[in-house]
Amino acid sequence: MNIYPRARKKLNKEIPYEIHQDYEGVFQDFYNTLKFKGHINWDFFFYRLKDLEIISASSNAQFYNRGALAEYNLLYNKMRLKIGEFKSAIMHEIFHLASSVITKNCIYSGFQQIDRKSRKIIGIGLNEGYTNLLDRRYFANYDEQKKENLRYTYMVTTSVASLLENFVGTENMEEWYFNADLSSLIDYLSEYVSRDECLCFLQAIDNLFYLVDNGAILHPIKAAQNYRYVINFLGKCYLNLYIGEYYQGFYGKEELKKRLALVYELMEKRLKFSKLKVPFTKKISKADFHAYVQCEKNKVLKKCA
């Protein structure tokens, strides 16, 4: 699905002079590193870049995510950067810029979609986790402090995004991400599980984002339940894949048993939620949990409003 509007004219692959001079060539570095990626819509990227507004913020400025050094508002194409500190975080925001597009009815950003009428959000957890995974893959050594910071950024959703990429393939994941094509990911997974299960899977990752990766330490039971659903979902995908390949004659019973054993081993290890080392300190009621999730969604919507 191609949701990008056609550019009025072909744009030159040039970074605006002011941005290049003022911000240490970070946009040029992003392009130079990823220009070989054919599935990135570079025309649209440079079209957005020419209208990008960059706002410098003081070191003690309050950002949407506590502790953030940079943030990108895709609706207004604005980027806020903390003076002297932004370099370890800016590539994450440029990934958002490179993978986002706005239509009349919907905001698409990587694997995240926001319905502009109903204000419903889906895919924020997977989107942030996979953006962080790409940042680790291509720019882990971009700044002295970056590698250390990346270890503690979106830990759970990044881990889940990595497991999902192992199943669907790196090329597929990157192509769908940069084309803001959540539908193709759902279509792919729907070959192995039901579409409703895919939507529940995405919602479970969103819940992990709200519960664990968004700076809040909340209900350990609900977090564990969502994490178990995610791992069981991926396990089911693998099981159905291997069983299908067995019936198609790709391998015999012994090989099938080995593959299934590996799946069960993966699920057993991952389901030990304590390995995430999340220091949960507060228990909340079901009603409070739903109120909290809605509050966090409203923050995202307000940021994009």
Number of strands: 7
Question: What's the story with the biggest beta sheet?
Answer: 4 strands, antiparallel
Please count the helical segments: 13
The class by helix and strand makeup works out as alpha+beta
Explain how this protein is built.
There is one protein chain. It is built from 13 helices and seven strands. The chain has about 300 residues and is of the alpha+beta class.
Describe, in short, the structure shown.
It contains 13 helices and seven strands. A four-stranded antiparallel β-sheet has the order 4-5-6-7. The chain has a three-stranded mixed β-sheet with strand order 1-3-2, with helices on one face.
Topology:
Elements: H1 17-22, H2 26-34, H3 42-50, E1 53-57, E2 70-73, E3 78-82, H4 90-98, E4 100-102, E5 106-109, E6 112-115, E7 121-122, H5 124-139, H6 146-151, H7 155-168, H8 170-178, H9 182-189, H10 195-213, H11 220-247, H12 253-270, H13 286-304
Please supply descriptive tags for the structure shown above.
globular; three-stranded mixed sheet; alpha+beta; 305 residues; four-stranded antiparallel sheet
